[in-house]
Design goal:
Elements lengths: L38 E8 L4 E6 L12 E5 L4 E4 L2 H11 L2 E6 L23 E3 L2 E9 L2 E7 L3 H10 L9 H9 L3 E7 L11 E6 L18 E9 L2 E4 L3 E5 L13 H11 L4 E9 L25 H11 L5 H10 L4 H11 L5 H8 L2 H14 L15 H25 L2 E9 L10 E4 L8 E10 L10 E6 L5 E4 L16 E2 L9 E6 L7 E5 L15 H10 L17 H10 L2
Parallel strand pairs: 1-11, 5-17, 13-14
Antiparallel strand pairs: 1-2, 2-10, 3-9, 4-10, 6-7, 7-8, 8-9, 11-15, 12-16, 13-21, 14-15, 17-18, 18-19, 19-20, 21-22
Length: about 575
């Protein structure tokens, strides 16, 4: 059996997401709101009392017995639970977008296009050999332990002996953290919890600045694994020991709304040596106002305590607008168990209309069958009313669970945004061989805000104003810094007759590089630029067009380090520059 372990789960394929509503389903057991599932997502808060509060989304696929989650922190933490809605709303509010503003064109028939569809108490500290157990407690669905040791071997043995499946995590990986005297948070699912009960964890601890123990992740990291970080504080957050990159917007697929953004960012980070973040949003945290929790939103929850009928109770929850997600589904399963009579009789009649043969055939696929029954039962309890005679339901206990698991985490998370005025969103991708340094973050009060909304102007250009042939049309895109590029639009149902590997640039300020700027950020003032975009134009003789005379000049410089002919900005005049030149040759 393959064992798995989550080490601050670092796994962020950044995708352009649109929040989908599950309201049309009419119940809590519908398709979940789309989540950024292939990514590590963390919210750090640099608190005014000098502590750090961290929310981490824990992602895991596997069996309950295979789950363990280990995280080093610099001081003894206070643990709590968070909620997936925190990360959903952060994603929706700060997601980078790429939008074209279309201008009038002489082309007669073409509209602006859309090219792609789209409670145990805390125990007293106890010694366990060379491992000190600071605390053990039940937090939400987890049994947790806070431990410390200067001996990584003893630490590993303690974790294994206490039922934590460590997979490839061993003493060598733990040693850098035990040498620093760090504490370790260890989580595993409580006996009455399952993988479906997983929810984000929160922790508050004393630390100077946020840090991600990325080195522990290298043992199970996917190539170019995304790391998404939001940081709340008084000022803009910066990567302290990683470089910073700004993406080259000329490399973005504007016609498809930046669908290649993740690849551009990955390439930009690689150009910076593999260890670099980009800032996707930096500005007022008020962008999150009332997104996670609105004052008074669930004040009427207590009124449901008199609803001893589970059908009426769930109707009340729907009216109150609680999140329709895996955490709510888990609470519903826990508090309203499906009676055996429903499985034996109700499902046969309600779902399969008395067709015993279909019913028995469906039961052979136990996973699909269970999901089908749960969706049908919990979304329409009224249909099963005659089979609910032996259902056990305590509305007061259910309300208590909702308050502890959903309402309290949401209200506490929302308060963080009210108390800390500045929000920064940072992103990178890392492969295992790049996870050699744990990224730390600091703050710079002098830096400008960064918008997550990117725009450019676009217009059609035609060979003739009365042309109606798609092959005669190109799109001229003008970036905000004045650079222009021409691209062939892939019209619906019409193949591109001459697909272009790179855009054709219409003016001088061009570079095919993914990073427009690589820099080292400082705690104050401006950054130190390591590399920017080249201002070199392929029109070397300034004649107004790229022609044979320019080719002769370029050929003479080929193979040299001549900045006057370095079209790619990498310091050399080589084949990469030749590709740029050819695409601009007239």
């Amino acid at each position: 059996m393959v064992k798995r372990v989550c080490f601050i789960s670092l796994t962020l394929l950044l995708t352009l997401m649109t929040p989908h509503s599950t309201q049309a389903c009419g119940g809590f057991f519908c398709s979940n709101v789309p989540m950024n599932q292939a990514a590590e997502r963390i919210l750090f808060t640099k608190r005014n009392d000098g502590k750090i509060t961290t929310h981490v989304q824990i992602q895991f696929s596997g069996s309950k017995t295979d789950f363990a989650w280990i995280l080093p922190v610099p001081s003894v933490p206070e643990l709590g639970i968070s909620h997936n809605s925190v990360f959903q709303q952060l994603q929706f509010a700060t997601q980078p977008t790429f939008q074209l503003e279309w201008e009038e064109s002489d082309c007669e028939f073409l509209p602006p296009p859309i090219f792609r569809n789209f409670d145990d108490g805390v125990l007293e500290a106890a010694a366990g050999g060379d491992v000190e157990v600071i605390a053990e407690e039940r937090i939400g669905p987890y049994d947790t332990a806070i431990i410390t040791s200067t001996d990584p071997t003893a630490m590993t043995e303690w974790l294994v002996n206490n039922g934590y499946q460590l997979d490839a995590l061993g003493a060598d990986l733990l040693r850098p953290y035990t040498d620093m005297g760090m504490y370790f948070i260890a989580l595993r699912l409580a006996p009455d919890s399952d993988v479906g009960d997983l929810q984000p964890i929160s922790m508050t601890y004393e630390a100077q600045n946020p840090m991600i123990p990325i080195k522990l992740t290298a043992i199970a990291a996917e190539p170019n694994m995304g790391v998404q970080v939001w940081i709340l504080g008084q000022d803009r957050a910066i990567p302290e020991n990683y470089l910073h990159v700004e993406i080259n917007e000329a490399a973005i697929d504007w016609l498809n709304f930046g669908s290649n953004y993740d690849q551009v960012l990955t390439d930009a980070a690689d150009e910076a040596g593999g260890q670099a973040f980009t800032t996707e949003y930096a500005g007022k945290s008020s962008i999150m106002a009332d997104r996670i929790y609105r004052p008074g939103q669930y004040d009427n929850l207590g009124l449901l305590s008199s609803r001893t009928d589970p059908v009426s109770f769930l109707e009340g929850l729907l009216i109150l607008g609680f999140p329709r997600d895996a955490q709510m589904q888990s609470l519903i399963r826990r508090n309203i168990t499906i009676p055996q009579r429903v499985w034996d009789e109700g499902v046969l009649q309600v779902i399969y209309r008395g067709d015993r043969e279909r019913y028995e055939e469906a039961k052979k696929d136990s996973v699909t069958f269970q999901a089908t029954v749960e969706r049908s039962f919990y979304n329409n309890l009224e249909a099963y009313r005659e089979y609910l005679g032996d259902v056990q339901f305590d509305p007061v206990a259910f309300i208590s669970d909702i308050d502890n698991i959903i309402v309290t985490p949401l209200t506490e998370a929302q308060a963080l945004f009210a108390d800390h005025p500045y929000l920064t969103r940072l992103y990178t991708t890392l492969s295992a061989n790049e996870m050699t340094v744990d990224p730390t973050f600091a703050f710079n009060p002098d830096l400008l805000e960064v918008s997550n909304i990117h725009t450019a102007k676009a217009k059609y250009e035609c060979a003739h104003s009365d042309s109606t042939q798609p092959e005669d049309v190109v799109v001229l895109i003008t970036l905000n810094d004045g650079r222009q590029l021409r691209v062939k639009p892939p019209f619906f149902g019409i193949p591109n007759p001459e697909p272009l590997p790179l855009p054709i640039f219409a003016n001088a300020a061009f570079s095919p590089l993914a990073a427009a700027r690589i820099e080292r950020m400082a705690l104050s003032g401006s950054s130190t630029v390591i590399r920017g975009l080249t201002p070199v134009s392929p029109d070397f003789d300034k004649s107004g067009k790229v022609d044979f005379d320019d080719f002769v000049a370029f050929a003479a410089a080929f193979g040299k380090r001549d900045p006057n002919f370095d079209l790619s900005g990498d310091g050399n005049v080589d084949f990469r520059d030749f590709l740029v030149f050819v695409q601009n040759f007239e």
